[in-house]
# Entry
Amino acid sequence: MRADRRLIDALRDDLGCIGTKEGCSIGVCGACSVLVDGKLLSACLMPAVFVSGRAVTTVEGLARGDELSPLQDAFIREGGFQCGICTPGQLIAATALLAERRRPSDDEIREWMMGNLCRCTGYHGITRAIKAAMA
Amino acid sequence: MTLAKSTLPDILETPEWRVEGRDKVTGAARYAADITRPGMLHAAFVGSPFPHARVASVDVEAARKMPGVRAVLTGADVRPARFGRRLQDWPVLAWDRVRFIGDRVAAVAADTVEAAERAAAAIAVEYEELPAVFDPEAALAPDAPVLHPDAAEYTYLGGTRPPRSHANMQGHVVHEHGDVTAGFEAAAAVFEHEFVVPRVHQAYIEPRASLVWIEGDTVHVVTTNKAPFALRDQMAVTIGVPAAKIVVDTPHVGGDFGGKGLSLDEFALYFLARATGRPVRSVLRYADELQLSNTRHAARIRLRTAVDPNGRITAHQGRVVFDGGAYAAGKPVAGLLPGGPTLTLAGYRVPAARVEAVAVYTNTLPAGHARAPSQPQHTFAAESHLDLIAHAMQIDPVELRVRNAIRAGETDVEGNVWHDSQAQRVIATLLAASQWGGTVGLDHGRGVAFSARHVGRGKTSLTLTLAADGSLEVLTGVADQGGGAHTMIQRVVARELGVDVARVHVRRGDTGHANVDPGVGGSRVTPVAGNAAVDAARKLKARLGELVLTLDDAARTAAPLAVTGEGEQNEHVFGTYAYSVEVSVDRATGCFRVVDAVLVADVGTVINPVAVRGQLEGGFVFGLGQAVMEELRLDDGRVTTTNLGDYKIPTIADAPSLRLVLITDAPGPGPFGAKSAGELANPAVGAAIANAIDAAVGARVMSLPITAEKVRAELAKREGYAPTSPDGTADSTAGRR
# Structure
């Protein structure tokens, strides 16, 4: 693989994992958020070669078979998405948050999720979903 | 969230489970950029570096020879193809003249994106610069450079283009009703103010994407366009292929907010696909989204209103100048103005009015539709204007609105008589919910804003089929842009038939399979497609009645049983809504923060409670962004906010809490009494905040976005002058007669 090939392109074009979305292409919108060895990263900024030998988690890896994760279920029940384009990134970021802090405060949710833009929900549904998932 | 009153039990009381929910949370949902075809090529474009120039020559020889390049096209290859939603004035590739920075002159199809972009960079274009005009008022001067000298050649879809008095006008309209002169002569006071609203972008997170291929004599289009049938019909005219031979498929749309009714790339992709015999795809980079696509119109709005001694409006005048940018192609409405161009005082009784609106060509990126076209501009102006009037007349701002908010049987600013109005109730509910009139802290202030938005109008149809296994399938052409249309249709059909929602499956069809639909927009989907869903369910029940069969028996013995549901909504009905917003302001810096917000909205019967809440909460934050932080800045026609780092939209940390109070028991014309919600929340946020800041510290900001710098500048002005100006505005032309 070429050294300048981005992780987002490797995921989407080479591996067919189209769940990860590209929005701004400069690491500010968070649509392309993935976990690399559990750490939250933007796949539009990360050269794919840097993740060689490391575990990459995308939205496709959140459900266990047919069973949605508590966050995925809560995003549907609480209105955590509308158009859904930012949702893979929101879910990945929220998954990382709940791995880091079992019961984050409202301020901790706001601080952590600041890097994931959503134009549809006004974020209220996302906050409700995260709180419902940790309940 | 509080529901003021609710009358319906059953399905509608249960929060919905989005039909596409599982796909959207697992990554399975397909958007246009996720779809590929074998042998697919990638497109790149060459855009003009000049805002206005003659294209002298385009040299593509070097580009054609580059590795991986399959086709290079210039304006000469596509001439005279132009595109647009109503007026087709935008060349697919410019052949003689470019009219804004980024206007395209050549297109490449190559094996990879990189190869296409390298080839595009190797195309040499010679331009001869022409005088450019960036200010709409300057463009209306008698000797201004004319952007479209060949306008007579343009195709206008569906009728005849309305006349214009200047070549740089896109559209021009004057609304007049009542005796305006008498209204002004009889007035106790006349107030006049001017407001400025900048360009903003819809800022959906998904950039436009499209894929075009030709199979036999059929053109296939995969697109992010939210109105696939309309795109098909526009494309038929642009490329000269019958509509029946074009199939447009819109998978999930990653956000629209009015912007994705206009397609940019699909037309050039057709010519590239025809030249190469291969599928060709284009995915816009976000920088191109911000520099090329149809933004909200910037506007300069001058309002002049006459009132009686009690502050009741007796007459109103308005002049609205919209910056239309280089092409009118993004505007779908007949007048070639953004929708509702003369709705300057929405939701008020206005016995006499004369409002003039004009959209003007300038050498800047084209403007088009954005969530509730014209209304964020007008509502910022109108609700700031009314607050200034209240202040000057020493009438409580809410009381002034109570005295003027429209009641049933009264006439609004566009001369329409309202047969029903919840306006008084919305304001009374807001008063109670916000504890209006109570005390607030030091340098805190409360602002109110009230407005109205139509319940969407239009016509659509869909099919409902009972299958042998007892399931019910709806086939619809309504695209999914995130509003929850398919879930709404499912619930309406299930409720009308008295079956479990799980038994109803909603499938979206492309333009080759589904019935014609006007597309998502104009607050139309629930009242129009929802009525079609009711009609389909009723027709199926009628068929069962004729057959004397139950649903289950019919499934066994008579399936498949198919009916077509028709939906139409042409009533002139409005939903009204009002905000109370409390801000705290730091006098030293002008920084302010929304500490409390209440929204009361008249939404009629709620079909999808989770989605309605999401539309209103999302509309509030969308409106907040465009009120306090968003501005697509231009410098001599060049966009300088070219990425989502510079063009700032709200993050989760910017979203204040919002208390919602819904009025649901005043039925509208939609299914089971539904109204609309999608455009009900965003337009009034700017004025509510401007009014709150003025109430807090006496700083009146007359333009959006309301930034700390502007608040600080107004405070400085007040500190410089004696802070006793009767109407609270240093630069206002308001005055008592």
In short: Chain B touches chain A through 59 residues (CB under 8 Å). The first helix of chain B runs from residue 21 to 26. Residues 255 and 482 of chain B are 7 Å apart (CA to CA).
